[in-house]
Structure formats: structure tokens, C-alpha cells
Amino acid sequence: MPIAKKSKNKGRVFFCGAGACQAAITPRGELKLCLMIESPRFKILPGGIKTAWKRLSGFSRRIELSRGRDCLSCRLIEECKWCPARSWLYDRSFTSCVPELKIQALRRKASAAKKRKKKQKIKE
Ligand code: SF4
Ligand code: SF4
């Protein structure tokens, strides 16, 4: 997911649209938020895809309502490759900080600042 897209939907946990306009289907016929998130899964049969989708999007909305942890208020969010799936893989939450990503984001920020300084020097 491009960073620009992330900043555009900064207020949302699933800025990518998982559970709002997209989902994944497992080989067992279950609907889930995305390929990387294994739980929850909602069986498509016997209720049908509409029922499964309602349950999935309801779950996604409840997360949106109860959001407010680490990543959504982080000053590094523009440099960070975070997404809810990365938090889920890290500690089964959807909003926690992933230390490895934080280190990478800090490096990216520092390198961008260095480049800016270099450009400024060339101009002077
Ligand atoms: S993973 Fe850590 S560094 Fe990255 S946005 Fe979340 S809180 Fe910030
Ligand atoms: S991997 Fe992340 S950005 Fe991609 S669909 Fe899953 S939650 Fe959204």
C-alpha cells in the first residue's frame, strides 16, 4: 500500500479498505480481512456471501471504533511500512507498534533528512 494512500486515510485502521471494500477468501470457503490476517474467518456457506460479508465488515467497523493505539497517532506513520496486518502478525492486535518497522522508519526519516541537507548545501 503506497504511503500516500495511507496518509490520505490516516484516521482509519484499515486504510487499505480491508473489510470496507475488499476481502480475501480461503480455500475452505471462508471470508477474511486480507491474505495476511488469518483470523477472524467467516464461513460463506450455508448463509451466503452477503451474510459473511456483513459479519466481516461489522468486525472491521468495531475495530475502527475502538482504535486509538500506537500506530494511528505515531509521528513516524508516513515513513513506516506499517499496516494492520503487520501488527496482527506481530502480536495479534491490529494497531500495535512493530519494533522492527519502527527501526526502519527511523532510518528512513534520518536518511531523508540527510538528503534534504545535502540538496540545500548544493543550492547554496
Ligand atoms: S509500527 Fe511503530 S513506528 Fe510504525 S507507525 Fe506504528 S507506532 Fe509508529
Ligand atoms: S496487507 Fe495490510 S494493507 Fe494489505 S490488505 Fe492486508 S491489512 Fe490491508
What are the SSEs and their pairings?
Layout: H1 3-8, E1 24-25, E2 30-34, E3 37-43, H2 49-65, H3 84-91, H4 99-123
Antiparallel strand pairs: 1-2, 2-3
The chain binds iron/sulfur cluster (SF4) (2 copies).
Gist?
The chain has helices at 3-8, 49-65, 84-91, 99-123, and strands at residues 24-25, 30-34, 37-43. The chain is elongated and about 70 Å long.
Task: Give structural notes.
By secondary structure, the protein is α+β, with helices and mostly antiparallel strands. The chain has helices spanning 3-8, 49-65, 84-91, 99-123; strands at 24-25, 30-34, 37-43. The protein has one domain. The protein has four helices and three strands. The protein has a three-stranded antiparallel β-sheet with strand order 1-2-3. The N and C termini lie far apart (36 Å). Residues 1-5 have low confidence and may be disordered. The site of one iron/sulfur cluster has 8 residues, from helix 3.
**Which assembly state applies to the chains in this document?**
single chain
Helix/strand order:
HEEEHHH
Coarse structural class:
alpha+beta
Bound molecules: iron/sulfur cluster
Give me some keywords for this one.
124 residues, 45% helix, binds iron/sulfur cluster, 11% strand, elongated, three-stranded antiparallel β-sheet, alpha+beta
